[in-house]
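Need the bound structure for hydroxy diiron-OXO moiety, inputs here:
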Amino acid sequence: MKKSIEEICNRQVERELYSSLLYMAMASWTETRGYSGIADWLFEQAEEEKEHMLKFVRYINGRGGHAILPALKQPPVEYNDIKTLFDEVLKHEQYISASINDIVELSFKEKDYSTHNWIQWFVSEQLEEEASVQAIIDKLNLVGDHNMYIFDRDILSMRTGGDSGGGE
Ligand code: OFO
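Answer from helper R.:
Posting the output first, comments after.
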């Protein structure tokens, strides 16, 4: 695999791992505030992000590169409220989508059509993730502050159940 592709995939290892850490930090904050449903949703999301990171690790190594596990910066400890927390999740997912698109673009430019083909799974996954977070935000806007208890129960049925097993 070309050095440029190895480097951009390693950049994504770091970003997926940070996503996992960020969602765990958010989950921990929500759990301490009694939102156990939201915490479960975020912990599950964190697991998915770890799986995404591993997909990159295995792909890089499988193509003759060397996947590097990075040191990570600490994610925020405190969050203002549930709505702003999910706004931050959406913003983060949009950042990840842009980062995946960079890989699509570079792999095409470098004529690495295997990577270009492989990364398409992440393109679809990002679409799905952004849509599911947007659906949560829409719902939060509907329920208002008084119905947060109901929302906390309801979010458990809002898992996309995104298949994170494919793509290799
Ligand atoms: Fe949130 O998604 Fe990974 O890629």
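Comments: The chain has six helices and no strands. The mean pLDDT is 91.
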